[in-house]
Specification:
The chain is α+β, with helices and mostly antiparallel strands. It has helices at 2-46, 56-61, 86-99, 129-139, 154-180, 184-216, 239-262, 265-287, and strands spanning 73-82, 103-111, 115-125, 142-152, 217-227. It starts with a helix and ends with a helix.
């Protein structure tokens, strides 16, 4: 009997020790979980926050980069050169034009009693303009006058380009509206707006083409001048030549005056008739 009680007492003690150990293990696990929880929170809090994703709206509102426009410089010039022989000088000019890839846009020749003039309008690539002017200054003749000018049209070109781009955008919007227009009135109004925009776009495109042409090809107005030598024994203008010139000019003036009087012959015929009628009227008035 004693042995049975001892056996039961041992069993109860072992159960108590197990339960105590289980409680202790559970408590340690709870404590560990309590201690580890703040660390997890700290780790999450200290983790870097990723940047927000850009939405389509943000991309749409971001400014777009515009292409930069190179500077637009228009160079023009005027030169007057005195030469000894017009034909020889013209041959030299043609050789200079070929070497600088230039061409003659307009040519005009004048031959008077005192001089010969050959006026040329030359178009030359912008990069060869200075070389062309220097060639004319050095090897053709004596430069009487030279005027070179540069005009910066970058601001105008940029302004026209921006307006042109906006007009094209509006044109596409009007075309979309035309496809969905329901009434005849709306269709006519939209078509009128489209027509006006197309005209404005044509004008802007023409202006840009004109500026590009003037920028890419510079213009030089070249005048070749030759003074004629007076025919005289001394090759100088002396008293005899001046006396003959004065007689010639006097005779020409007299002929011009005489021809001018003759051109007034209708008035010369009317004056006697008017005088005759006036005297006849006065005589009748006195008789009365």
């Amino acid at each position: 009997m004693k042995n049975l009680f001892l056996l039961l007492f041992c069993l109860s003690l072992s159960n108590c020790s197990k339960s105590g150990s289980n409680k202790h293990s559970v408590n340690t696990e709870i404590a560990q979980s309590k201690n580890e929880a703040p660390m997890a929170v700290l780790e999450v809090a200290s983790a870097p926050i990723p940047p927000p994703m850009e939405t389509p709206a943000m991309e749409h509102t971001s400014p777009k980069k515009t292409d930069t426009i190179s500077r637009k410089i228009i160079k023009n010039g005027d030169m007057r050169i005195q030469v000894g022989d017009i034909k020889k000088a013209q041959t030299q000019v043609n050789d200079i034009l070929k070497s600088n890839k230039a061409y003659i846009q307009n040519e005009e020749f004048k031959n008077t009693d005192v001089d010969e003039n050959l006026d040329l309008t030359i178009r030359v690539p912008h990069k060869n303009f200075d070389a062309l002017v220097n060639s004319f200054s050095d090897g053709v003749g004596s430069v009487l006058s030279k005027n070179i000018s540069s005009d910066d049209v970058t601001e105008e070109y940029t302004d026209v380009s921006i307006k042109l781009a906006n007009k094209r955008i509006y044109l596409e919007k009007y075309r979309d509206m035309l496809r969905s227009a329901a009434t005849t009135k709306d269709i006519l109004e939209i078509q009128e707006n489209i027509r006006e925009l197309e005209d404005e776009i044509d004008v802007s495109e023409g202006r840009l083409r004109f500026i590009d042409d003037r920028v890419n090809y510079s213009t030089l107005n070249l005048s070749l001048y030759k003074e004629k030598v007076r025919s005289s024994a001394t090759s100088k203008v002396g008293f005899g030549s001046r006396f003959v010139d004065s007689l010639t000019e006097g005779w020409n003036s007299f002929v011009g005056f005489f021809l001018g009087i003759i051109s007034l012959w209708p008035f010369l015929l009317l004056i006697p008739v008017i005088v005759f009628l006036w005297r006849k009227w006065r005589s009748r008035k006195r008789n009365k």
